[in-house]
Amino acid sequence: MPTIPELPPLRWLSAADVEAAMPAIPERLALAERTLVALATPDGAELPPKLAIHPRPAASFVHAMPAIYRGATLAEDRIGMKWVAGFATNTALGLPGISATVILNDPATGFPTAILDGGPITAQRTAAVSGVAIARFGPAIGERPPRAALIGAGVQGHSHLPVFGHVLPGVELQLFDRDRSRAEVLARAAAGTPGIGGVTVHDTAREAVEVSDVVLTAASFGPAAERQSMTNAWLAEGATIVPIDYATYCAAEVARDASLFLVDHRDQYLYNRDGGNFDGYPEPHAMLGEAILAGTPRPAGRVVVSHLGVGLADVVFADAIVARAMRLGLGIELPR
């Protein structure tokens, strides 16, 4: 009778464990770029469209996001899935709008090896992808400090602060949130963030956007009738726009008229466009990873980089976090 191999340990990492084991910003940016390049490399990854269900609360969703990162050998493959819920109505309850769990599987047997609170991963990997987009395709500023608008003062707003400070040193941050008190909390956090040179809270989103070289929209998803208010008229001619909230703010005309329109994953973007989440939006010029591999220069004019979030990034980040957590003795080993 063949010997049954010993199963790998199964580890649970809480949100506090994940945050304690989160890599430093330079490694996060490297992990994000590795993910984007894998998506653009033949047989570098497998990423089906998000499987979505829609609970009763307004503008809510729950997504299953499985992914495989294919390494040079079986041992270097990474397999996993994120199960993520977005409830815009949580804001009124004082709860995060996004909650998630990430599961990693052994690439040889398929058995789960780790379960992680995915909230901090979602926040930090999203910010890291934004950082890659800004570092690669941000506008030329000149001698003055760069100005960046951050629309939305939720979890994603907070997670982007250190990335802005890292990729745009000395940045003058322009903030807006529908709830001014949340924007003021974010402003206080920004004032103590390394690399951020100044902070202004604005009364309207347009005021924040009009003066900015880089615009990042991270607002809570809302009804279709309230989407796409940020038109070309709001934007500086050479701005880089990074929407992470689908088409909540960024109008289709901005993407249509951009000198370069990139997405994190073409099939996922087109799937969502067909589902009505990007009404009027054009075909992308390329995926962000394709543009990186091709060495695409930043053109004159506006650049839009829309990233919807890919499960592959969660898997790649989770693997790095688990490895660091084990070195630090974090987490709980669960019985099989």
Summarize the topology.
Layout: E1 10-13, H1 15-21, H2 25-39, E2 45-46, E3 51-53, E4 60-69, E5 78-87, H3 90-93, E6 98-105, E7 112-117, H4 119-137, E8 147-151, H5 155-167, E9 171-176, H6 180-191, E10 196-201, H7 205-210, E11 214-217, E12 240-243, H8 252-257, E13 260-263, H9 266-274, E14 286-287, H10 288-294, E15 303-306, H11 311-328, E16 332-334
Parallel strand pairs: 1-7, 8-9, 8-11, 9-10, 11-12, 12-15, 13-14, 13-15
Antiparallel strand pairs: 1-16, 2-4, 3-4, 4-5, 5-6, 6-7
Helix pairs in contact: 1-11, 2-4, 2-10, 2-11, 4-5, 4-11
Structure notes:
The protein is of the alpha/beta class. The protein has two domains: 135 residues, ornithine cyclodeaminase, domain 1; 171 residues, Rossmann fold. The chain is built from eleven helices and 16 strands. The two termini are 23 Å apart. The mean pLDDT is 95.
Number of domains: 2
Class from helix and strand fractions: alpha/beta
Radius of gyration, taken over Cα atoms and rounded to an integer in Å? 20 Å
Biggest pleated sheet: 8 strands, mixed
State the share of residues found in helices, binned by percent.
25-40%
Shape: globular
| Relevant CATH superfamily of the largest domain | NAD(P)-binding Rossmann-like Domain
- How much strand content do the residues show? 15-25%
For the secondary structure, the number of strands is: 16
Sequence of secondary-structure elements: EHHEEEEHEEHEHEHEHEEHEHEHEHE
Please state the average pLDDT score.
Answer: 95
Q: Between the first and last Cα atoms, what is the distance in angstroms?
A: 23 Å
CATH class of the largest domain: Alpha Beta
